Amino acid sequence: MINGTEFEERRGRLLAMMDSNSVMVLFSGVEKISSADETYPFEVNRNFYYLTGIDQPDSALILVNSYGEMKDFLFISPYDERKEKWYGKRLTPEEATKISGIKNVQVIDSLSAKLDEILNPSMYVFGEIKKLYLDLDREIKIGEDTTTLDEKKIAEATYRDVAVSDAYPLITTLRLRKSAREIAELRSAIETTKVGLYSVWSNARPGVHEYELADLFMKVVNDLNGYQGLAFNTIMASGIHATTLHYPKPLGSLSDGDLLLSDLGARNHYYCADVSRTIPVNGKFNELQRTVYEIVLDCNKMIASKAKPGITIASLQKATIDYLATACLAKGFIENKEDISRYYFHGVSHFIGLDTHDPYLSPIRGDYRTIKLEPGMVISDEPGLYMADRGIGIRIEDDLLITNDGCEVLTKNIVKEVEDIENALSSKLR
Prior knowledge:
36% of the residues lie in helices and 19% in strands. The protein is of the alpha+beta class and 430 residues long. It has two domains: 4-174, Creatinase/prolidase N-terminal domain (Creatine Amidinohydrolase, Chain A, domain 1, 3-Layer(aba) Sandwich), CATH 3.40.350; 177-427, Creatinase/methionine aminopeptidase superfamily (Creatine Amidinohydrolase), CATH 3.90.230. The strands form seven sheets. A six-stranded mixed β-sheet has the order 6-5-4-1-7-10, sandwiched between helices. The protein has a three-stranded antiparallel β-sheet with strand order 11-12-15, covered by helices on one side. The longest helix is centred in the middle third of the chain and has 24 residues, at 180-203.
């Protein structure tokens, strides 16, 4: 588990990246309404969590870099006996300090006053502040009707001499390279994923519903990780359903002769595993299934052999498209290489960490694809072929840790060779 010392180190690195005479404000987030008076389960803002380890709503962090002075302040909910009777315990200041390493812990109600002390020219308790950083990622809610984008407008109107900048690129740049403790968290999540996936395989047979297997995976994972939940909604897709990338509702039932594609992951202290495997429901690949599967498997191995420092995800994607196109053309599945877009139409890789698709700059724009890989980064390796006209959807996904001279396949102990899968299914992994 990440300790307070590492959170302190992260904040120190971030403070050094900030402009001199600047302040950063980050929020843990609030519960979001799902319908009527019901809320979704709370999910802490990962950038806030990365710097504090605090996992509760209505909390905030201030970092100050002014005239060489570095300060951090944590704001949490005050003790409220009535609320705790309804919603459970919140952290005390002492507990928050132990987790985060931040000694100056105040109640959230004092956040506005503290910010005014820092930004108001009539006070300037840390000297003149010229820049305010806010996390301006999409829709970070900091109140029932307020987002960080709203906070930006308020700050610009209130403190006209202070420039407002986006903290998101600075923090996500730090998040790209994983520490030894972070990698340990990922290994733990992967091991839990392995046990859950093998439980799915033990119960996969004709007639079983996809949702039964998805539910089983969630139960096994929660039993093992102390109810920390899943990295993302499980994709459990059999037959033609496996040709839909993000197959949304696992309502189908498994049939003899079909393949079952599972894309799933456990999480450990929010660090996410992301694994895909494809198996034959009846325990044996037929000739066509095996042919297609081995194309995807060989591509998966090829990507792992190329992933190393200096390489970009964009270059891995180009290699994937070329490999799959050449192999499918040789087997007569397509008439020319450009036709591969019918059967392969997603990226082969993304960063993995506190988010399954760990962000860098703008995930929407795809900036992450051009970042040169460095030791400590963790990426996915997930080629696939989706032949709806043949009822075959196959994806094989591993998690790769970039090392000094290549990569380590963190998911190497989850079998993927044809013979290993068939042997495992024949024994039902008991």
